[in-house]
Design a protein that fits this description.
By secondary structure, this protein is an alpha+beta fold. The protein has one domain. It has helices spanning about 1-20, 30-35, 185-195; strands at about 40-50, 60-75, 85-90, 90-95, 95-100, 110-120, 145-150, 155-160, 165-170, 185. The strands form two sheets. Strands 1-2-3-7-6 form a five-stranded mixed beta barrel. It is globular. The N and C termini lie far apart (about 65 Å).
């Protein structure tokens, strides 16, 4: 009986993994990312913390990015603090439990990034309003700070290498493949963003 339960659990896990591994996203070119964003910035990830959503069903992470350069902005009611921006996304670790989504590229403390941002539709509250995670030493209070999400999830983040390359996570996409740029010199990326009409 015990062996049957273990086999059944393994089958369920295998089916779930095979279904999630085949998930694909609509591809977003740089033009699409710019046009769907309220602000595009280059900055350094300074701090992050993970927490359970208010309903306790998912783990979220809030990362704080010190803005080095505002590359492009569109002020449509967005409250933009050009010094530090709070970015929230699904995934992270709370205690011994972790959650990962294949279409999310986490913001890691110390990273130099170019990120495309949209205003979060709904501000998530932590269950019990207590942050958890590895890096909550400099955590700011939530108050009425503006929260952003990355436009296009993982497609909205370029990691800047020491060699000056902007690298975007390679994810399976269903369309627009010829217009997708995952590796580009950072200065060329910034100029491309500025030229979008």
């Amino acid at each position: 009986m015990k062996n049957r339960i273990i086999v059944a659990i393994c089958i369920v896990i295998a089916i779930a993994l095979s279904n999630s591994a085949s998930a694909m996203m609509a591809g977003l070119a740089i033009d699409d990312l710019v046009n769907d964003s309220v602000v595009v910035v280059r900055g350094n990830v300074e701090d992050s913390y993970s927490f359970w959503s208010e309903d306790g069903t998912i783990i979220l992470t809030k990362a704080y990015v010190r803005v080095e350069e505002v590359i492009r902005e569109r002020r449509q009611g967005a409250k933009i603090d050009f010094q530090k921006i709070a970015v929230e996304y699904v995934g992270g670790e709370v205690g011994d439990i972790g959650m990962v989504r294949s279409n999310v590229s986490p913001l890691e403390v110390g990273e130099d990034v170019v990120i495309f941002l949209k205003v979060a539709e709904k501000k998530q509250k932590a269950a019990g309003n207590i942050p958890h995670g590895k890096n909550n030493s400099k955590m700011a209070t939530d108050g009425d700070e503006q929260i952003y999400n990355m436009t296009g999830d993982a497609q909205g983040k370029y990691l800047i290498t020491k060699q000056g390359m902007a690298i975007r996570k390679d994810i399976p996409i269903v369309n627009n493949k010829e217009n997708i740029v995952n590796n580009i010199p950072v200065e060329e990326l910034i100029e491309t963003i500025r030229r979008v009409k």
